[in-house]
Amino acid sequence: MIHDQARYTREDEAVHEPLLSEKTEESVDASDASPLPDDLTRDSLTLPAPSEPEVARHYTRLSQMNWAIDSGPYPLGSCTMKYNPKFTEDVAADPNAAVHPDRSERSVQGSLELQYRLQEFLGDIGGMDAVTLQPPAGAAGELTGILVAKAYHEHHGNDRSEVVIPASAHGTNFATAATAGYDVVELPSGEDGRVDVEALEAAVGDDTAALMLTNPNTVGLFERDITEIADIVHDAGGLLYYDGANLNALLGRGRPGDMGFDVMHYNVHKTFATPHGGGGPGAGPVGVVDELAEFLPTPRVRKTEGDGGYERFEPDNTIGKVHGFAGNWLVLIKAYAYIARLGDEGLADAAAKAVLNANYLAERIDLDVPYGPFHHEFAATAGDRDAADVAKRMLDFGVHPPTTKWPEMVPEAMLTEPTEIEGKSSLDDLAEAFNLAYADTDEALSTSPNRTAAGRIDQVAAARSPRLSWQALDEE
Predict the structure, then answer these.
(1) Is 137 part of a structural domain of the chain?
(2) What is the dihedral of CA 197, 199, 204, 209, to 10 degrees?
(3) 76-102: per-residue pLDDT in tens?
(4) Does residue 273 sit in the same domain as residue 137?
(5) In this predicted model, what pLDDT tens digit does every residue of 38-60 receive, in sequence order?
(6) Measured at the alpha carbon of residue 48, what is the angle toward residues 44 and 53, in degrees to the nearest 5?
(7) Across the chain, how many H-helices and E-strands are there?
(8) Are 396 and 440 in contact (CB under 8 A)?
């Protein structure tokens, strides 16, 4: 059953807001001479002086005003919001992991070995021959992969100006191709939600540098014609790029390299449970087949001959550096720890449960779900109801809603990805929230949410004129 949301409402917030402001204040003398200009200094600073329990309660209350994967289901379709195991945080916090990137190779052999092993793990998982760990995010990995493809074409004298991208692709695909200097050719989807092979044959040609593809695609469908798609692109002299956003569905069960993909990026936050979102560091390693390995960013790591050690090296025709040193080192440690802990069987089991959970949830909700069967995610439609309104109402039932209004190939889309981490009871609660919200009155949908710290906001104003200060309006 849907339970009451164990959170502070806006009314609670009003009651508890004076927590710090009512307390005794202490003045800190800051009158010492300063080298800064007078308009940048102050003579004193007034600070609150709460007790320890009051501080603990204040920050606990703030944490309860936000939703997180540690709070409950977070089924954002395409985003793959997975639980981050705490043991990986412990590994990354080990003092031995605090390695300065400028230290000599001789003194960081353990770090280089971990990087080398992670390269090998990722290459094996994706069916790729060589991997770089440098890109600091999935989007950065995308751009790196396309720049590697571009370098390959330029090195071989191929004059290529276009990248073909399905209409259902992630928005970053279009941005990546354009940023790399390519014209974008949008490919319509077939009636079954997959790549229209005839449309693809008509779209590719002598100008085609690559086809960017996610498999399974954005509505959770596996591209059954993938080998034919690869042949069409390769026959035209193009490369096949794999967007790793949905790799979570394939772990241990299918490899992009075996399907004919030439280059791919890995979203370690989506697939290997490193932190996701919040503007913090990420990682988007890139894997390639042998023919593209010489164009990868520098440095990479390899074994040294004879002594069993490890060294950094620069690929022959590298595109250069795309990030400092070896990438976001502590994030990469977490990805390595996750892969090593799960092993082959654990990764394959994660993929199986992700697919099972998506199909189970799709069967339990009352909304229409076009296409199917699904791998790891599905796009339901709210029909004649506003998907954003349904999503806002779901918040009142103690769950986080899915991605809404995208992909556009599904009207009033509610793109949902429960991932492998949710159990049956959690999925049942999520399904009940879907059904209650979808069946609610127009008035309830248009005024929700009502039980969250913040109510319905002006999303346009929030995006165009964000308030980035903690200060209240009456304090300015």
Answers:
(1) yes
(2) -80
(3) 999 999 999 999 999 999 999 999 988
(4) yes
(5) 888 888 888 889 999 999 999 99
(6) 155
(7) 15, 14
(8) no
